[in-house]
Amino acid sequence: MFGYEDLLKEVDIFNSIGVETGVVGDSYLKNRIPYIYIGNDKKNCIIVQGAIHAREHITALLVLDMAKHLLARKDLILNGGIYFIPMVNVDGVMLAQQGDTVIKDKQLRKKLLQINGHSDFSLWKANARGVDLNVNFDANFGSGEQNVFYPSSQNYVGEYANSEPETMALINFTTALRPKATLSYHTKGEVIYWRFGQTRTKLWEHYRLAKGIAQNTSYALAENSRSAGGYKDWCIQKLDIPAFTIEVGKDSYSHPYPYADYENLLMINKDIPRKLVNTLNR
């Protein structure tokens, strides 16, 4: 499995060879959320993020390897910049992979065990407060069909919109950069979500980009009017930019997604960010 400590080591390697790295912000448990930047034009950039859901930690490795792919392929043309944020939910990933022993505060550990109902956290999606970060954003907050309103391993919206430090870190980082688009990597289902109440003009523009991603991955375009409060939703509603949630991997597999199928995920998706940024900056 690819974990938080693995990510920190990889980021140090990027930094040591002169690649720009930095921190988006800190998690609830005060762990830093790293980013990697590759490109030549920060004003014409996109953001690619993964592992906002803890059990989907395979997407952190995927986003990291997308950055490696760009570095390794000097022959590829990149017209713009890409900010890679491999692991947004760093606390949650540690909890999902290592269990409650990563929580040093005894009261918090007890609370999380009560929420989860047992000591196996491998299917945990939320952060270290039991908030599902991808329903915590201020974009029709609390209106999702599967939303719950109490701490849970998944789907809890939080006390109020943008309540979590990870959510605010991503909001502040995105607002400061003003990217031309964002990509959010999740598992599973091989579908691309792209709609969230766009105006007619924007709808066609966003559909055209989504269709391009679909053609390059063979994933299906999908709509989910029953979902709200996600990072994609917030980017579309508040920044008026195209944003896509890409659910990688076959739906027949169970969570957490098996690393045995990882090479297939990487082969299909590794060049999607570059192709998107090039399309946007033609």
SSE blueprint and pairings:
Blueprint (H helix, E strand, L loop, with lengths): L3 H13 L3 E7 L5 E8 L5 E6 L7 H15 L8 E5 L4 H9 L7 H11 L48 H13 L3 E7 L3 E3 L6 H18 L2 E3 L8 H9 L3 E6 L13 H8 L2 H9 L2
Parallel strand pairs: 3-4, 3-5, 5-8, 6-7
Antiparallel strand pairs: 1-2, 2-4, 6-8
Helix pairs in contact: 2-8, 6-9
Summary tags:
8 strands, single chain, 8-stranded mixed beta sheet, alpha/beta, 9 helices, 282 residues
Could you characterize what this model shows?
The chain is of the alpha/beta class and 282 residues long. Helix content is 37%, strand content 16%. It has nine helices and eight strands. An eight-stranded mixed β-sheet has the order 1-2-4-3-5-8-6-7, with helices on both faces. Strand 1 and strand 2 (32-39) form a beta hairpin. The chain starts with a helix and ends with a helix.
User: Helical residue percent?
Assistant: 25-40%
Low-confidence stretches: none
Radius of gyration: 18 Å
Strand share of the residues?
15-25%
Overall strand count: 8
The coarse silhouette is globular
* Mean residue pLDDT: 97
Distance between the termini: 38 Å
Q: What strand line-up does the widest sheet have? A: 1-2-4-3-5-8-6-7
Concise structural overview:
By secondary structure, this protein is an alpha/beta fold.
